[in-house]
Amino acid sequence: MEDITKHPILEIPDRKKINFTFDGEQLTGFEGMVISSALFLNKIKIFGHHVKDNSPQGIFCANGQCAQCNVIVNGIPVKACMTPLKEGMLIESCNGLPELPPEDNVVTVGDSDIVDIEVLVIGAGPAGLSATKSLGENNVKVILIDDKAELGGKLVLQTHKFFGSQEDVYAGKRGIDIAKILGESVEALSNVKVWLNSICLAVFSDGLTGILKNNDTYVLVKPKYLLIATGAREKMLVFPGNTLPGVYGAGAFQTLVNRDLIKAADKIFIVGGGNVGLIAGYHAIQAGIDVVGLIEALPNCGGYKVHEDKLRRLGVPIYTSHTIVSANGEKGVESITIAEIDKNFNVISGTERTFACDTILIAVGLNPVDEFYYKAKEFGFKFWVAGDAQEIAEASAAIFTGKIEALKILKEIGIKISEDINQLDKFAEVMKAKPPHPIDIEIKFKEEGIYPVFYCNQEIPCNPCTTVCDQQQIETIDNVITQLPYFKGEQDCVGCGKCVAVCPGLAVVLLDYRKDKDFPLVTFPFELTEAKLEKGEKVIVVSNEKELGAFEIHRSRILKEFPKTQLITIRLPSEIAKQAVAIKNYETKYIEPIDIYQKSLTDDETIVCRCERVSVGEIRNWIRSGVRDFNELKALTKVGMGACGGKTCTPLIERIFREEGVSIDDITPGKKRPLFIEIPMGIFANAKDKKEEL
Fold it and tell me: Which residues contact 284 (CB under 8 A, 6 or more apart)?
């Protein structure tokens, strides 16, 4: 591992180096970086060993939702992914909890401050920011909290351009830029208080909300109205080797790479062909990391086709109707074994292949962070839910639903609104809809003039190319946002290239036949290097299926409005011009399977509860003996009783019940903890050392 010093999209800041120790070894990191990223920077992926079976423990969610990354700092266990590195920190591997002192310090226990507020917004991601902006602009007093050090949620991890409409959700801008736009708008509002590094622990029956403010002070907030915009957590899979260091979610990978600028791997393999997996693959390539392959269990990838096409053009093998058989290695991931599956999702014997890699990204969907929703409902709060906590969808949809829920709160307060909420709800459903199957399109090339060609073939909500054209010559059918764009041609295209540069899917090219119809000029978008490509350099021209050859650059330019997208113009033979959809600056080198012995693990060895190291076999045995109550499973196996509170294993165990023929309706759900995140008891009780009072 190493820090990223060059990136085609991200600005590399000057970072102050500081010293710390890990297990007695003197190391260097960057000030403000979280501990987990500092350890990755120093090529350390094992943060400790589990007390039950000595299994190596490493990063998993990178989002504070579990305790997989626990380390001991100055004698106190902390989450490495949430704790900023400081000069001189003494960090040790977490191989169990440290010994308690022989005697407790004498402390006094005090009451916590109670803060009254009109609206409390939990979560400063796209939904929370959008909602807070609308509320604040209508002079509503708001407290906005988030457990991270900066505003934006997952937006700060997104280097790609967003889909949707420019007017409603900033389509055509990158997530990192949208985070700045929304964040600055919210911070400028005098009636909005922003609490960062502040974790919501629980909502209580007396209408209070418990918050760990600034990671050190417990505060009770009493809101008149509560907006829950807590986002989502990644789903996990059960397979042999699933808890090895190096197996983690795509979001954790993007946190390491795009937020903390750590080259977190050399070779990755992605499990899951939705947008999260496809986008993570593209982000990896931008960071100089090899993507060995991607598998999807369904016959087709579920993400946007343009995202899939971007990976295929860059030479990433995508295996549909495939599953992961195992992650392999002793102390960390060394390889992955995959296999083809039939229509019933059973492995087809003899199709297994093993590929060398050091990281496996799990991108098989998201679960809403909805604990606060259910408790707020149970306790009779006046509450609203937005973003992924409401329904899993794209971040552009979260921006929109955040605004809608804010308008509903304004209406509840009695503030007059001009927007039609019913119409907005209908548009939100369009934004949240699953992408339909791609359609076959026939492009009619005319060998004259200059015009854009659109290689998008999926009717998804996206129209920035229509709004960016100064000549207003790009439209969708009936101006419906989900219809495919086309060039009207009522006026001559001026060749400005804005439609090429703005496209989130990099699916627009510009053909120019004005000088030579046999060798037209073709302009492509390019985002894979921070160095500007220059005239005379050679690049590889590709279609969606194959490489078309190496050609010299005729012209290279960058538009002021789109500073991170290069427009590369190449003179091509006419027949190649009609196939060319993109360029890349390297030849594809396919990675072949390796032939090594892999240990076959049984259900009794495959882990379903990471915190308590409970196996699939244990769960199956108890289900087969008649257990139908999750609370009974807890008592029998300790499943769900670990640090994450069952957030990861509960959906996996529900799946095991289904596999055993037990309906979810026949299962008694487990009791949720009153606090959803761990907190030191001293802080929770507002305890003070009596010595400090003297």
Answer: 253, 257, 265, 268, 290, 291
